[in-house]
Design goal:
The protein has 12 helices and no strands. The protein is an all-alpha fold and 289 residues long. The chain is globular, with a radius of gyration of 23 Å.
């Protein structure tokens, strides 16, 4: 064990107390400000630019707010000092939920200038290949949930920040084959998107099952944490595994469903138009006088 680690834990928690750390706030504000400036007063400097639709603005804004709620405030305090299960909620939010909203909110004309960076287009096309994106995301996520790296992350704030940046970045790469805004680095075909999303969740379910069904405490950091809720260390760990397993799978199945309807909608519309075209034209009845 780590006898001095208890000094790193805080003893109190409040749902109403919002702590926002400068290391997060600066990057978050700069990222958001750049988007809104590009979408607004600086848009005229982007070739082929057009007004950003309200739905895309709302999607990007939602991704920023989700990032804030997941990485700061009460959820941050719970996950960093008290509950493994809260950390799983945080990780799923920034890896599975936030990236598709962010990618949907970025128009192609805004992202395209980045491709002028030498070598970036080639690297992006390689990294977003479904096999590479699948292996990269699951390798990073799985590696950080081994007890050794996880404990190092929890005891070193700098390492913790790097971990969050890594899972957010690989989350963006993971979603790119499904949500790409750029035809130069395109989405894969809808049937392959559904297969990709299905396979994507398999390694995560394996990790979740190992965490859920073990009888050993895997993470000393949470064993040393104060018990502010009526839940044991092992039950908290199992709850974290279930959160990774069930809600994580539900997000991917929801995405599969949306891809299916997005894929079949043109065919449904075409069938409706064909049906209307085949309907016999009935002349209106003559009025009776």
């Amino acid at each position: 064990m780590y006898p001095l680690a208890v000094l790193l834990h805080t003893e109190s928690f409040s749902w109403s107390e919002w702590k926002i750390y400068p290391s997060f706030l600066v990057g978050w504000l700069l990222f958001g400000a750049a988007y809104y400036l590009f979408a607004g007063p600086l848009r005229r400097y982007f070739p082929g630019s057009a007004p950003v639709p309200a739905l895309k603005l709302a999607s990007f804004t939602g991704s920023l707010l989700l990032m804030l709620v997941a990485l700061q405030g009460p959820l941050h305090e719970l996950s960093d000092y008290f509950l493994f299960s809260a950390h799983m909620v945080q990780h799923l939010a920034v890896m599975l939920v936030m990236p598709p909203f962010l990618l949907y909110g970025i128009p192609a004309w805004m992202a395209r200038p980045a491709l002028r960076v030498p070598g970036l287009l080639r690297a992006a096309r390689w990294l977003t290949l479904p096999v590479v994106a699948f292996l990269l995301n699951n390798a990073i996520f799985g590696a950080w949930h081994f007890p050794g790296p996880y404990d190092l992350m929890m005891r070193n704030h700098g390492v913790h920040v790097v971990m969050h940046l890594m899972i957010m970045t690989t989350g963006m790469i993971m979603w790119w084959p499904v949500m790409s805004p750029l035809p130069e680095v395109p989405r894969i075909a809808p049937p392959l998107q559904m297969l990709y999303l299905f396979i994507l969740g398999v390694p995560m379910m394996v990790v979740a099952a190992l965490i859920t069904f073990t009888n050993d405490t895997l993470y000393p950091w949470y064993a040393e944490a104060p018990r502010i809720f009526a839940i044991s260390v092992l039950d908290d760990q199992r709850l974290g595994g279930v959160i990774m397993w069930v809600p994580g799978a539900l997000v991917l199945w929801l995405a599969i469903t949306l891809v299916y309807f997005r894929w079949t909608r043109p065919e449904i519309r075409e069938d409706e138009e064909s049906f209307v075209a085949r309907m016999p034209i009935v002349p209106p009845p003559h009025p009776d006088f």
